[in-house]
């Protein structure tokens, strides 16, 4: 064998040895990396949520914060009252927008095994009052007719529920209000767009507040009370025609300039817009002088679901992110106030002048919604 052939053979052998060493090195890196990843492996937690919380769970900062705690959360959206119609198998949690539908879901979970029932005690990490968003022209016309009181800057105010309900009873139109002439967008019957009260929490709570005001400050507790306010609640609902089953779509329509000039939403949806620096256009926030705080209530269906609920309620980073999405953490008004101070012209941070209406039992509230939709027992 000549020198050149011998040298070529040596180079081939060295090349093979080097390739083996490189592959071994890569394998070693992969194994080491795998060992490191085991510390941050996540459990997948699946749940159904109200649409107003979709952006919160989709936020990359929330995804990262939950991942750091070992959770990957997968969500589907549904109207809060519609959740009770879903099979709970395969879900780790349900996260409706108030106590009523949460109670129904907890009862449904309680009919399963004892372990599942024990895991179903609810958690309420944050809440949000119901408000009405209006375009500035509509808000000024309402103020000129005694239905609204506006703040100094005209970007927020108070909706007088007694006056509004009186207008609803009388089927008043925008054209009958002084100052509406010359504004073609203000036409037809005066009403507030709300969600379907049979399917959605915000729509049902709207009826609870209206019923409380209309019945002289009494919370509906039986069929007689439902019957007393049923004609008015029917007007509030049926004048709207088709209704959405979640609060996200009506708010997006309003912001894009589509639809009715008055829309019932969660304060959190407005605050999230402000904190994200999105343009507000001519939006005015009206706090009903009698409203309902919506306690977003997580019902754990498994232990992983409970872990998520506890993190949302107690973890400082997740609480801060909830505020960034406009929610008020339970028991910590200062967190919301500090984050929204620069937007106080839009928000009633202390809810001054706002009365909280008690909410009927879920059974009464559901019957109230059915009667408003002409689907309930009229006997």
Describe the protein's architecture and organization.
With 379 residues, the chain is α/β, with parallel strands linked by helices. The chain has helices at residues 3-37, 54-58, 60-68, 99-110, 114-118, 136-144, 161-169, 201-214, 223-238, 248-255, 267-275, 303-314, 316-324, 333-340, 362-372, and strands at residues 43-49, 71-77, 93-95, 123-135, 148-150, 156-159, 262-266, 283-288, 290-291, 293-300, 328-329, 355-356. Strands 1, 2, 3, 4, 5, 6, 7, 8, 10 and 11 form a ten-stranded mixed β-sheet that branches. The chain has a two-stranded parallel ribbon with strand order 9-12. Helix 9 (223-238) crosses helix 15. The longest helix has 35 residues, at 3-37. 43% of the residues are buried. Residues 1-39 and 115-119 have low confidence and may be disordered.
